[in-house]
From TrEMBL:
Chief location bin: membrane
Residue ranges annotated for the Integral membrane protein YccS N-terminal domain, each copy included: 69-323
Transmembrane spans: 66-86, 92-109, 116-133, 139-160, 401-418, 453-485, 491-509, 521-539
Name of this protein: Putative membrane protein YccC
Record key words, sorted: Cell membrane, Membrane, Transmembrane, Transmembrane helix
Lineage of origin: Bacteria, Pseudomonadati, Bacteroidota, Flavobacteriia, Flavobacteriales
Membrane topology label: Multi-pass membrane protein
Organism: Maribacter vaceletii
Length: 750
């Protein structure tokens, strides 16, 4: 019960619920004010204008949000006017419906924010069919009032922004820490769950993509909001938490361990890994609790559990050495030591977040130059060339626009021929659930139908109990507010609430509520069916045909990240910023690849060609980025020896292998060759360094010098990590080369 109350509190304090309240407030004010002034007939048009522009209100910089809302207001007004003036002439209306559907949906090529503006435009087009205005004066008044409604919503967003100026950023930070906490716990399970690793890895793909998306939004929200007078203390705190969350993600990625090596070293002795697994779980739960406290404003949890688990992890190294004995225990001890060092850094970053949240004065400050911070922003280009480049059947968004257009025109003609009462409900269902990918469209169709049916059943029950119009009004408003609050979290439940709201809003005008319920259900099923069939049959965008470009980008970014790590090893201080930028681009690329793979899993089984091969390539890329991050993280946090010629030779080999993979996917011949003999020699020399240090350590132990000094320990760690990870990277790059060649051959033959 206590947990449920906590979740309810978190929901009520969330930006999702605030958004619902914002919409409810925005609707209530014009209705009330115009009723008092005696102009209530104007209220629906004002509210419609507000409603149409809600989608563009998403977290981000204030400037981009205002621009998006202003464009959305203008677009919805123009589209509504065009539809209303065209309605009396069926051929013209069909032509207009076709043109608006295609070109407005194509706006989505400019990114997520643009896709929401596009949705507002499509929504305006569909709802214009429900507006009964005939004379030019009535139409122009309708458009004017809708514009006022849109501007009113813009004012409402400013009002709420003044009341809770940093709530969006806090919610984003909270969501990010929650996801990272879940990610940490999942990575802990990978240590010992040998038989479930494939399934767990697929779960990590989803979480990694979600975290990267949150980081991108936070970059825009936090790095573009810097005022000329500098940041406030509160903004400083948010930025510190954000930076720590990025560091934690890199540390997690840096320890995508060589599980085959771990299984080989520890075998049945997995009990020595349990302390590390437990620490991951405790750290994950700690981050989840901190994420809640960003919303709840409660006391920071005690750090003793965290520190105790860290101590137990360190003790596990000693226990392992005492049990297995040196020198046999050396490799296992070094694995545990490297794992401990990484977890110790994670604890440090978590404690940094704790200090910031606890307002500790000694918490570090951010020293990020404006020109440096700007380089971390991923800016969306709005060039006309992007539109022209996508004006081809090779573009998934172009095919989606064609598909959506045909589905909408067909839906409208079907409703017209069958004389369906509310044809626009069919069109509304199509634009709400139809997405570029078949899997997501099918999932949303299922959720929409189930939500609508449940909503209809509940509405029937309420209608049988009471026919009170006041009850209907309250239910309509409350369900609408909750629907807007939950549409991003639980689409099925949001569909249920929207159905309740729509049914009772219509019941206020139409006393026959059962008729409204009947048409609502039928039209939703028709619209959902059209959307799914259209996605399957009309210019289908199967992920297997589009994932190649994402693979190319990932390989390219991994190669650049590898070379940035090499430069970091040469001059850590000078090359830190370029390394961080390359890391960011590589993480974004792998995030996009993970998302593409998830879409592939949602396609029909018959369309998932070479699924296992693609999964292998995705996993190899994910593992490669982790191995690079592991070396980079070690270089940043330890004093290292100069990069050797053998290290650089191996980097060249790995880089060449990645370039061969790129060329293979692009169908180009590779001209970069490097002899395997040189590579074998370089690898052997790296291993020799570790062997020499290891033998020296053995002699010291034989002479009774059991205590190891810090320099020797760090030297052993560096030699062990570099030699093993470079060998690992080399193997990964060679496997990638083979897999991409096989993938290219299979695609050519199909």
């Amino acid at each position: 019960m206590k947990e449920k109350l906590k979740q309810l509190e978190l929901f009520l304090k969330s930006t999702d619920f605030e958004r619902g309240i914002k919409v409810g407030f925005g609707i209530a004010v014009p209705f009330t004010l115009l009723y008092i002034l005696g102009y209530f007939e104007y209220a629906p048009a004002v509210v419609l204008g507000l409603f149409l522009n809600v989608p563009g209100d998403i977290p981000g910089s204030a400037k981009r949000k205002v621009n998006a809302l202003l464009i959305s207001i203008g677009l919805t007004m123009v589209i509504t006017a065009i539809i209303l003036f065209s309605k009396p002439f069926l051929p013209l209306l069909l032509l207009v419906l076709t043109a608006i559907s295609f070109f407005v949906s194509l706006i989505s090529i400019y990114g997520f924010r643009a896709s929401l503006v596009s949705f507002s435009g499509l929504l305006a087009m569909v709802l214009a069919f429900a507006i009964q205005k005939e004379t030019p004066q009535e139409i122009l008044l309708q458009i004017l009032l809708m514009g006022i409604g849109g501007l009113w919503y813009l004012i409402v967003t400013f009002i709420f922004k003044k009341i809770t100026p940093k709530k969006d950023q806090n919610q984003l930070l909270s969501d990010t820490l929650l996801l990272i906490g879940q990610y940490l716990k999942l990575r802990g399970k990978l240590l010992t769950k040998k038989t479930k690793r494939d399934d767990l890895l697929k779960e990590t793909f989803v979480l990694q993509h979600q975290i990267s998306e949150k980081h991108e939004t936070l970059r825009e929200a936090l790095l573009t909001e810097r005022k000329r007078s500098g940041r406030s203390r509160y903004e400083e705190k948010q930025l510190l938490i954000f930076i720590s969350s990025i560091n934690i993600l890199e540390l997690i990625e840096a320890k995508h361990l060589d599980y085959k090596m771990i299984d080989a070293i520890f075998g049945e002795r997995k009990e020595f890994l349990k302390a590390s697994k437990k620490l991951n779980k405790i750290m994950g739960n700690h981050l989840i609790r901190l994420s809640e406290l960003l919303i709840q404003k409660d006391k920071i949890p005690n750090k003793n559990t965290l520190l105790k688990a860290l101590t137990e992890t360190n003790n596990a190294i000693t226990n392992y050495i005492d049990t297995i004995k040196l020198p046999e225990a050396r490799e296992g001890a070094l694995v545990l030591k490297n794992l401990y060092d990484y977890q110790e850094q994670l604890v440090y970053e978590i404690r940094a977040i704790r200090r910031v949240m606890a307002n500790v004065k000694s918490a570090s400050k951010v020293s990020l130059k404006k020109q440096d911070s700007n380089q971390f922003l991923t800016l969306q280009e709005y060039n006309i060339n992007i539109l022209l480049q996508n004006f081809s059947l090779n573009s998934s968004m172009f095919r989606h626009s064609l598909r959506l257009t045909i589905a909408l025109v067909f839906g409208y003609l079907l409703g017209f021929v069958l004389n369906i009462q509310n044809t626009y409900w069919i069109l509304l269902t199509i634009i709400v659930i139809m997405r570029p990918s078949y899997g997501l469209t099918k999932e949303r169709s299922k959720d929409r139908i189930i939500g609508t049916l449940i909503g209809a059943v509940v509405a029937v029950g309420i209608v049988l109990i009471t026919q009170n119009m006041i009850v209907y009004s309250i239910l309509a408003i409350v369900s609408l507010i909750l629907a807007f609050s939950l549409v991003q979290q639980n689409y099925k439940f949001a569909a249920f609430l929207i159905t309740i709201s729509v049914i009772f809003l219509y019941s206020l005008a139409n006393p026959n509520a059962f008729e409204v319920i009947q048409y609502r259900v039928i039209d939703t099923i028709i619209g959902a069916t059209i959307a799914v069939v259209a996605n399957y049959l009309l210019f289908p965008s199967w992920e297997v045909n589009t994932i190649k470009q994402v693979l190319l980008e990932t390989l390219k970014m991994n190669r650049e990240y590898l070379l940035a790590m090499q430069n970091l090893y040469k001059e850590p201080t000078k090359n830190r910023l370029p390394y961080n930028l390359a890391r960011k681009e590589a993480f974004l690329a792998i995030s996009n690849l993970n998302a593409a793979f998830q879409r592939l899993t949602q396609d029909p089984k018959s369309k998932q060609k070479e699924f296992q091969l693609i999964y292998e390539i995705v996993t190899l890329n994910q593992t490669m980025i982790s191995a690079i991050a592991s070396i980079g993280n070690f270089i940043i946090n330890h004093k290292t020896t100069p990069a050797s010629k053998d290290f650089n030779n191996l980097i060249k080999k790995i880089s060449t292998s990645l370039q061969v993979s790129l060329n293979s996917l692009e169908s180009n011949e590779d001209k970069n060759k490097i002899t395997e003999e040189v590579m074998e020699d370089a690898h052997e020399k790296l291993l020799d360094k570790y062997t020499q240090l290891s033998n020296l350590r053995d002699k010291n132990i034989e002479q009774g010098k059991t205590e190891i000094d810090t320099d020797t320990l760090h030297g052993l760690q560096e030699a062990f990590l570099i030699s093993n990870h470079m060998s690992w990277l080399r193997t990964l790059s060679e496997n990638l080369q083979k897999a991409t060649k096989k993938y290219r051959s299979s695609m050519i033959n199909t």
